[in-house]
Amino acid sequence: MKYNFITIEGNIGAGKTTLAHLLSKHFNARLILEEFAENPFLPKFYENRQQYAFPLELFFMAERYKQLKELLQTKDLFQNTTISDYLFTKCLLFAKVNLPEQEFSLYQKLFDIINPQLIQPDLLIYLHAPISKLKENIKKRNRLYEQSISADYLFSLQETYTEYIRQHKIKTLFIDVSDADFLGNEKHFQALVEALGKDYDIGQNILTLP
User: Fold this and answer.
1) What Cα–Cα distance (Å) separates residue 7 from each residue in 84, 104, 120, 173, 206?
2) 16 is in an annotated binding site
3) What crossing angle do the helices spanning 16-27 and 186-195 adopt, rounded to 10°?
4) Per the structure, how many domains does the chain have?
5) Which of 14, 85, 108, 155 would staple 10 via disulfide (CB 3.0–4.6 Å)?
6) Beta bridge partners of 8
7) Cα 154 from Cα 87, distance rounded (Å)
8) Do residues 140 and 12 make contact, with C-beta atoms less than 8 angstroms apart?
9) Where on this chain does ATP bind (predicted)?
């Protein structure tokens, strides 16, 4: 393992948390999981996006900052690697989709104050899946408030993520997970494990699964 801090990102239902668990177990790494269930505005947001988007995004930003700040400042002598199932910049990407222009402008000012205080990942693993696959995974995991998520909303998030991946300055391992099965297909997981032993250029690097 060449990386001390790895972040896994992707659209809703891409399989971020499942993969974070698998990698954490394999490498005996410290695991940071997004505590989305703690956000009281989340179910309300899916019922009324316009009314609850701003408090939803503010709550997420505050909680993500607090969690990352605390965990990344605390060194664990027995675990040199940390794996997270979200990137702090996720705050800005979702806010860009969910907030009207004036609210987003205010939100971005707050984000720009907070973001420099956090450690950026050494490697970003980005999981890309078609909307149909995302919808299938969302249905399968059966979180009640997620069942109303539209394909259009997922597409907007996908476009925002794709634009960010093209432009950002972090080493990124881009994986098409349309047919991936890290849990059930040992070859898929092993290909990723081997990939994490290599160095990459800044920007997008594509990993093709066997």
Assistant:
1) 5, 24, 9, 10, 16
2) yes
3) 70
4) 1
5) 14
6) 125
7) 18
8) no
9) 10-18
Is 13 flagged in the annotation as binding? yes
Contact predicate 36/150, CB 8 Å: no
Q: 75 a known binding residue?
A: no
Q: Residues with catalytic annotation?
A: 85
Q: What is the CATH number of the domain that holds 103?
A: 3.40.50.300
Backbone angles phi, psi at 103, to 5 degrees: -65, -40
Among 194, 200, 198, which Cα is nearest to 170's?
Answer: 200
Environment class of 182 (CB within 10 Å of its CB; exposed 0-12, middle 13-18, buried 19+): buried
18 annotated among ligand-binding-site residues = yes
Which domain does 69 fall in, by range?
A: 5-207
**pLDDT per residue rounded down to tens, the chain (210 residues):** 789 999 999 999 999 999 999 999 999 999 999 987 778 998 899 889 899 999 999 999 999 999 888 877 776 655 689 999 999 999 999 999 999 999 999 999 999 999 999 988 999 999 999 999 999 999 998 888 888 899 999 999 999 999 998 888 889 999 999 999 999 999 999 999 999 999 999 999 999 999
